[in-house]
Every structure is written in C-alpha cells, then in structure tokens.
Design goal:
Blueprint (H helix, E strand, L loop, with lengths): L2 E3 L5 H4 L2 E3 L14 E3 L24 E3 L12 E7 L8 E5 L5 E5 L9 E2 L14 E3 L8 E3 L1 E2 L6 E3 L7 E7 L2 E5 L5 E5 L3 E4 L15 H6 L56 E3 L6
Antiparallel strand pairs: 1-2, 3-4, 5-6, 5-8, 6-7, 9-16, 10-13, 10-16, 11-12, 13-14, 14-15, 15-17
Length: about 280
C-alpha cells in the first residue's frame, strides 16, 4: 500500500494524506458474511450519552471476521483483499474446499491466490496468514491475532500495522512482547497468526478536514478550558486563560491527562512480566 497526497488547491487538501487503496483487489463484500450494524450515537440503553462527541456517520454493514479459525488442517484459498469500514486493518476473503467462505484479518504479504491453513497439532509452514499454537512458533517470529485463552478466538494485536514478537517459552507459558513494549505471559496452547498485519501506513494518514471525521461518526472534541464553569471544572476566567488546575480532571471531576486508571489488583496483573513504558 501507499499514501496519496493532493495538490494544495484548498486548505484542507494541503494537509490531506490518504491511503491509495492499492492493495484492495475486491470492490464489494461477500453478502453472506454481512450483518446490520446499528449506530448508538454514544448512548446507552437508557438513551443517555455515555460516550461524547459521537453522531451521524455513514451507514455500515458489519463483516463477520473469523477470529477462531476453527476449521483445522484445511487449506483455504485467498479470493481477495477488501476494505473494512469497521476496523483499521484490511480483511481477506478466503474459501475452503467445500465452498464455505469466511473473512480473516489480512497480513502484510498476503495476496490473492495464496493458501492459508489453521492447525493445533499438525506442523505447517511459517508463512503469513497461517494459524498455529504459540508452542509451534519459532522464537523471534512476528505474530498477530493472539488468543488469551485456548479456543476463545483472537483478542489482542488486531490493528493495522501491528505485530507482537515471541520472546521466550517457559513450561506452560510463552512470553510475548506486545506492540506497546509490554511483555506478557500467554499459554503456549493459545493460537496466533504468523506475520504482521497489513495497512502499515495507517498512522501516517492525515484526514485534512473535520468533515471526513464526521463521515466516520465523530464530532469535534471541545477543550474544557474554553467552556463555562457550569460545563467543565477547567472552564471560566477572563479572556483566554490557562487550565489553572494543578490536577487536571474530567467534566465529572475524575483525574485525567496521565492519571493511571488501571486497577492495582486487576486479575491479569499476574500475566504481565514487564509493563509498557517501564525503564529497562
């Protein structure tokens, strides 16, 4: 894939950098793998706003992505690479010998016509798109779509351009280095997919104008310091004033801007060997 820049005929185009979609080989999704996706507008079941600055956006259909890869020891052919409006990564449409089709997250080097396979006990090639337990993956391999419990489906490392690295194996656990630099213990029987996820230049995009984010269902986010005191603890003051609060807070008084919100006794702390951002 690559990035597309525009002639600066307008101010938004001057700063717009978008994907050229060169890797997309299939224009329309598979109808049998689509389900309707309802928009909430950031509201919960009581109709109250729980996630601010969400509204509108283009209508979408959800693509049923197979994160479990439950069809074992069966080779599937890649029919095409598609765009998915619900995630940053691209998806690949694969077809099994009996004609069944499914979607998977598209790795970086996966192309139309390639063959992918999933296994638990059988030895298969270490090539992008193949799914296997961590116990069978060589050390140092780049992996993604990692399970946290065997058979429960991939839960982590699913975004565009991301990959984790298998660092070591010890008894029943494998030590995996996450994209955040966190080192975590994962059971060796959990499965993963070999390779790095495609669309690696997603973070280099610049949408150029606020309207493009409105198409995605995101409204503009207003700073607290420009609000009135009734609307935000940082609001008020004569003219343009700084935040003034030595401890920045949310509109509801909770600490923010660097305040750690992770529970000190979270159940998964025992699986974390090295925290992200920790000095070595």
């Amino acid at each position: 894939m690559g990035l597309k820049r525009f002639k600066p005929t307008t101010n938004p185009l001057r700063h717009t950098i978008l994907c050229d979609f060169a890797e997309i080989t299939k224009s329309y999704p598979e109808k049998s793998l689509l389900v309707p996706k309802k928009r909430t507008g950031g509201r919960n079941s009581y109709g109250r706003v729980t996630a601010r600055y969400r509204s509108g956006g283009h209508k979408r259909m959800y693509r049923l992505v197979d994160f479990t890869r439950s069809r074992l020891n069966e080779k599937a052919e890649v029919l095409g690479i598609e765009y998915d409006p619900n995630r940053t990564a691209r998806i690949a449409l694969i077809q099994y010998p009996d004609g069944q089709k499914s979607y998977i997250i598209a790795p970086l080097e996966l192309k139309t016509g390639d063959v992918v396979e999933s296994t638990v006990e059988k030895d298969i090639d270490f090539k992008p798109g193949n799914c296997m337990p961590l116990a069978k993956v060589p050390l140092g391999t780049a992996i993604h779509n990692i399970e946290l419990r065997p058979g429960k489906g991939a839960k982590i490392v699913r975004s565009a351009g991301t990959s984790a690295q298998l660092m070591a194996k010890e008894s029943d656990f494998a030590f995996v280095r996450m994209p955040s630099s966190e080192v975590r213990k994962v059971p060796v029987m959990c499965r993963c997919v070999v390779g790095q996820i495609g669309n690696v230049e997603h973070d280099s995009q610049s949408y150029g104008k606020a309207g493009r984010m409105r198409w995605k269902g995101r409204k503009g986010n207003v700073r607290g310091v420009v609000m009135n005191p009734v609307d935000h603890p940082h609001g008020g003051g004569e003219g343009k004033s700084p935040q003034g609060n030595p401890h920045p807070v949310t509109p509801w008084g909770m600490p923010t801007k660097g305040y750690k919100t992770r529970k000190k006794r979270k159940y998964s702390n025992r699986f974390i060997v090295r925290k992200r951002g920790a000095k070595s």
